[in-house]
Amino acid sequence: MMEKLPFHEYHKDIQVIQILSQGKKPLRPAKTNKAFTRFGLMSQLWKYMTTCWAFDPTSWPLACDILDGR
């Protein structure tokens, strides 16, 4: 994911808009991706990222919860 933009598999902006309007999120990169080895994209971090991408802002985690590892 770090080498490519989110939704890189779609070639037109309208496709990305449609995907986002359906509530879909970027695909998790493969464990062989450099993001895992170089930047430490672990399961917990991915969980935080996907939670932060929730459509409903009331579902977003609080910064203090992330810092506390909740």
TrEMBL record:
UniProt-recorded name of the protein: Serine-threonine/tyrosine-protein kinase catalytic domain-containing protein
UniProt source species: Coprinopsis marcescibilis
